[in-house]
Amino acid sequence: MMKPLLPIKKALEIDPNLVLAQNNLKEAERLLAINNNPPLPNIDDRDYLPTETQEGLVKKLRSTARIIATTSEGASIGTGWVIQRQGNTVLIVTNRHVISDNKSKRPSDTIEVEFYSTLDDIQRPRYKATIEEITDSREDLDLAVVKVVGIPEDIEPLTMKSGWIQRNLEIPLLVILIT
Fold first, then answer.
1. Residues contacting residue 174 through CB under 8 Å, at least 6 positions apart
2. Cys-Cys crosslink for 50: which of 35, 55, 93, 153, Cβ 3.0 to 4.6 Å?
3. pLDDT for res 49
């Protein structure tokens, strides 16, 4: 194990629920693995998707994103979903706190996005993102929209439904964990 990972592991021994340390360790291990075994260039993650028969929600999963922002505190990791697509560009809504520094509230200059596939972390493609809109840190509304260019053709906006919901209607819950 590399010496730089030891302080992060020590922090997790003290408090296993320390999210920032978990994120930093995951990113450090990913970078170490990439350094030791560089991924193949230009992997098309669409080749690593389950069929709709195997995973009925594959299109919904591809409409969600794992967002990784580098802040002065380390890696901030969260989720978002595609709200608009135009050509090879998408807009993704997320929370402001995912792409901002916790202490200074300053938005990150380095934001990357991953989409669902069965590839492991070091092979899953990451796409650069830029902030399109962000709410003021003094506001209660904690939202941001990031823009990503050059994404695969199958990434589509997450479909939303509107209208009344009947009382006592069973509503399936979609929980997305991208590891």
1. 57, 60
2. 55
3. 94
